[in-house]
Specification:
By secondary structure, the protein is an all-beta fold. Helices cover 0% and strands 48% of the residues. Strands 2, 4, 5, 6, 9, 10 and 11 form a 7-stranded mixed beta sheet that branches.
Length: 127
């Protein structure tokens, strides 16, 4: 059984940067497609970025493309989300997620495609 734990959130100003981390315990992540999602108040959980098993392929939501970078360290069982040029509309709870599907592909953006979730970390961007 794998467990995910996010960290790195906080309160920042528009234009600032944050780096989120997602640490896995219980099993290796190297065989899993991973992703970051976020949920703003009153809105549904939404795709932010995904990364292939070995980190070579990455996929981003249009709203974060060019500002956010997803990466992973399989040896350390950790995934990251570097967030630059943050905007107030980036305010949300950010979740990391893992897909256990053998057939999973790095372009999967649906919440239902992922079956293991962290508890979330709050990111608040003030204007």
């Amino acid at each position: 059984q794998v467990a995910l734990a996010e960290s790195g959130g906080g309160l920042v100003r528009a234009g600032d940067s944050l780096r989120l981390s997602c640490v896995a315990s219980g099993r290796t992540l190297s065989d899993s497609v991973m992703g970051w999602f976020r949920q703003a108040p009153g809105k549904e959980r939404a795709f932010v970025a995904t990364i292939s098993r070995h980190g070579a392929a990455k996929y981003y939501a249009d709203s974060v493309k060019g500002r956010f970078t997803i990466s992973r360290d399989n040896a350390g069982n950790t995934m990251y989300l570097q967030m630059n040029s943050l905007k107030p509309e980036d305010t949300a709870i950010y979740y990391c997620a893992r897909s256990s599907q053998i057939s999973a592909v790095w372009t999967m953006t649906g919440v239902s495609d992922y079956d293991t979730w962290g508890q979330g970390t709050q990111v608040t961007v003030s204007s």
